[in-house]
Design a protein that fits this description.
Blueprint: E1 4-11, E2 17-22, E3 25-27, E4 35-38, E5 43-46, E6 48-53, H1 73-83, H2 91-104, E7 107-115, H3 123-134, E8 140-146, H4 157-167, E9 171-175, H5 184-198, E10 202-205, H6 210-226, E11 233-236, H7 246-258, E12 262-265, H8 276-282, E13 286-288, H9 305-315, H10 321-338, E14 354-357, H11 362-368, E15 374-377, E16 380-384, E17 387-388
Parallel strand pairs: 1-4, 1-5, 6-7, 7-8, 8-9, 9-10, 10-11, 11-12, 12-13
Antiparallel strand pairs: 1-2, 2-3, 5-14, 14-15, 15-16, 16-17
Helix pairs in contact: 2-3, 5-6, 6-7, 9-10
This protein binds zinc ion.
The site of zinc ion has 5 residues, from loops.
């Protein structure tokens, strides 16, 4: 039954009220006989949005992985590609486990980058597509075809990316055009050509810091403009926006605004990161994600976007309540806006994708991160008291 009344609930920590849900959307009134749920004065927020993760390769549910991987980005990439099969890392099973943990913590939509390479082909894409179908109605999963191992140095990858997009991937991914690809023109031309051919948006991992990242970002901006893809391009990580030379960053902000390019941050501990307060002040759409969790890259992380809001807030040194609220906004409406989610929010007519959280204020909800009392997706209960209604394989 999707007709419900949420009684005694505080939307966005405002005054207590009753909210009604009819046919999966918030409505002015509920029909007689609708299920009534007493929310006990708890805060209601729209569904948490995991806008940058890697569902195909977390090690959740597998034996502990003893990490002895080298320090460079390429060490992690090469190691992961080599050990995936021997670890028993099955993209369908792992993505289902990971997505169910996200459902339990209140996430209602996910953007997942999924590896495409000449070693494993489209196994990741097919596995996550299967999970997407299995969990339809419980969580929305958007798939980014992601050339984790690079495209230019590995012939055949561009063709596989093309196949992945034809098969059902929603977004064209990319990776450090200089640092990993060592061919910025080749890589970015290929990414934008794939986007044009399939009519799909772009989300590029850009870890390159400082001057190198600035150069790559300028190349992405130039192609966004040339291809008329304003509003359709996202840069994930974008560490170069955290560089100390703020005059260079100010010029990048201007160009990002002009071309409506979005930023997704994970609040990474490995680098200086984009400053979410400045992005907000500039009007640059910003989403948040946990990135890979508990994988061969690193042992840390939980599939919990409230925790990610806290980590992004801490990394940005945001201590005031409005700062913590901004970190939460990044992990909710920011990601939803980037993903162009229809009907996101708590207003009448919006899809009833929402989470009951504990706390007196939004900032306290982020800080205490208590188990989520109730999670709804399209008005249907998907998790209660921190446990999803489906069990992981
Ligand atoms: Zn990533």
């Amino acid at each position: 039954m999707t007709s419900k009344t949420l009684k005694n609930v505080r939307p966005m920590a405002g005054p207590a009220t009753d909210l009604h849900i009819v046919e999966g959307r918030f409505a002015a009134a509920a029909p007689e006989g609708a299920e009534v749920i007493d929310c006990g004065g708890r805060i209601l927020i729209p569904g948490l949005v995991e806008a940058h993760t890697h569902l195909d390769k977390s090690l959740i549910g597998l034996p502990w992985y003893c990490n002895e991987v080298g320090p460079r980005l390429i060490d992690k990439i090469d190691n992961e590609r080599a050990v995936k099969v021997s670890l028993g890392l099955h993209p369908q099973v792992q993505s289902e486990r990971h997505a169910i943990e996200l459902i339990a913590t209140g996430t209602t939509q996910i953007r997942s980058h999924v590896d495409v390479d000449t070693h494993h082909g489209l196994a990741g894409i097919e596995g996550v597509m299967e999970t997407r179908e299995k969990l339809a109605g419980l969580v929305d999963i958007e798939i980014v075809a992601f050339p984790q191992s690079s495209m230019m140095p590995r012939p055949g990858t561009v063709e596989l990316m093309d196949e992945a997009l034809a098969l059902g991937a929603d977004v064209v991914g990319g990776i450090d055009p200089c640092g990993i690809e060592r061919d910025p023109k080749g890589h970015l031309d290929a990414v934008f050509a794939l986007a044009e051919k399939h009519g799909k948006p772009i989300d590029i991992h850009l870890h390159e810091p400082g001057a190198l990242g600035t150069f790559s970002m300028e190349e992405i901006i130039a192609r966004t403009k040339a291809h008329g893809m304003q509003g359709k391009v996202t840069i994930s990580h974008a560490f170069c926006l955290g560089q100390p030379d703020r005059a260079v960053v100010a010029a990048l902000y201007d160009a990002l605004v002009e071309n409506r390019i979005h930023i997704i941050t994970t609040g990474s501990t490995s680098a200086d990161v984009p400053r979410i307060l400045e992005l907000k002040q500039r009007g640059i759409l910003t989403g948040g994600g946990c990135d890979g969790i508990r994988d061969t890259w690193g042992p840390y992380g939980r599939a919990d976007m409230l925790e990610r809001a806290m980590l992004i807030g801490m990394k940005n040194n945001l201590r005031r309540d409005d700062g913590v609220e901004l970190a939460l906004e990044v992990c909710t409406s920011g990601g939803a806006a980037i993903m162009e989610t229809e009907g996101y929010g708590l207003d009448i007519g919006c899809r009833a994708d929402c989470v009951l959280v504990e706390g007196e204020t939004l900032a306290e909800a982020v800080v205490i991160r208590a188990p989520r009392k109730l999670v709804l997706k399209g008005g249907k209960i998907t998790a209660q008291d921190g446990t999803a209604v489906v069990t992981a394989p």
